[in-house]
Amino acid sequence: MPFRPPPTASVHRRVLLVGLAPLARAAIVPELTDIAEVQSVAFPGEEFDLACDSFYPDVVVVDVTYLAVSVVRPLILTRFSGSEATIVFFSDAGSGWLDEMRTLSSRPLATVGIGTLIEVVRGTPEAVPS
Fold first, then answer.
1. Does the bond joining 6 to the residue before it have cis omega, within 30 degrees of 0?
2. What are phi and psi of 77, to 5 degrees?
3. What are the distances in angstroms from CA 83 to CA 33, 77, 121?
4. Structural domain of residue 70, as residue ranges?
5. Is the pTM of this model over 0.70?
6. Has residue 55 been placed in a domain?
7. What is the CA angle 13-18-19, rounded to 5?
8. Segment 9-29, tens digit of pLDDT
9. CATH of the domain at 67
10. How confident is the model at residue 78 (pLDDT cuts 50, 70, 90)?
């Protein structure tokens, strides 16, 4: 089902964490909660579907460490087509991919760490080096 924009805009940025392992989630969530509303869900599953239909994230962070990125990335991009979300895919190898749904642009990220995610959530993905 394609992404539907929310009926009203939220004042705070919203971050959807998808498929993060407990250790990664424990490290990232405290850093992001000061600057955004954060929701974490498993993928695939009902939690993910519900979040897509009701949470309307500005940023989606997808951990593909234990998932096939060649399968997951197209599914996530399709699910958020029509949105203005920024989507970051990363793995425990440290590299990743950034997709801007608003501009339909994509670029690789040489490193993805907590600092990178904070910059993206703050709305400055251009400050994140490729």
1. no
2. -60, -40
3. 22, 10, 16
4. 14-122
5. yes
6. yes
7. 155
8. 444 799 999 999 898 899 999
9. 3.40.50
10. very high
